[in-house]
Amino acid sequence: MNIQLLLDNKDGNVFDISELTSEVTWKTKRKDKPSSLDFEILKDKQITINNGDVISFKVDGNPVFYGYAFENGGSKNPITKVTAYDQLRYLLFNDTYVFKNKKASQILMQIAKDIGLRVGTIEDTGYVIPQLLEDDKKLLDIIYSSLEKTLMNNKRTYTLYDDFGYLNLKNINNMKQPVVISDDSNLGDYDWKNSIDSDTYNRVKIVRDNKDTKGRDVYIAQDSRNIARWGRLQYFKKVDEKMNKAQIQEMVNAALKLKNRETKTLKLKDVISTDIAADLKLRAGSGVYVDIKEKGIKQYYLIEEATHKFQKGNLVMDFDLKVV
Fold first, then answer.
1. Architecture of the domain made up of 90-172
2. What CATH number should be reported for the domain whose range is 3-85?
């Protein structure tokens, strides 16, 4: 395994610092955070790392990370620690936006254009959101709010991520990878959990203000059988008054279908890479097939978080997975 770690100080100087580091950690998360690259390098009089410098990372010629240094520091020892983030980091500041009759994909494109982010493949999210008003919210939260509304209406889950300097938005069904993680070969250890404590609801209640009656229209869908099993777990949401009855009823039914089940998660630890090029595609938002004979698990999982550790010529990975 050959790594290439480059530093561009924006003064026209590009330094290859691959030989100055012994370990690089790349972390991706499906929601809420940019991907990060953490590494330590030996201090060199010829090389100075400043926040804002461009950091790029490749493995065996495969592009992995392109971003910017946000933290660097050290102590008496001759080591400098660096943390870099991709361009999603620039979506973590607050602003105000109002959108009418826009798709989530269009909302993303508009925000990216406004703050000067580079865009790659943006898939059409389909659902037209009647109105989205977000005041003093993180830009990333605004984008995810539009994606959540899309999920509730057309049952499609999309992943937003940076691919070596370009924002991509893809349906998770288009991100399934052919890699198999198995307790027969490359899996070190695992933890599993089935829960109704976080994102499980067996009753959905959605309300809409009605100007004509000066009251509220209420729409409810529920699973009485699961209410008897788990108790009432209610999901509540207020929607825009411009949504019609058919749209709201469809949203209620879709929300119940999505959330009326246990949340099943799986943590995979110390997964040994057997194919570098393929394993680099196992980033958050991708799908991976898991085969654990002891638990009778044979299915695809969605990667919620991924950690790739590159050290001593080897790649070892950890994954937080979820059934969708």
1. 3-Layer(bab) Sandwich (3.55)
2. 2.30.300.10
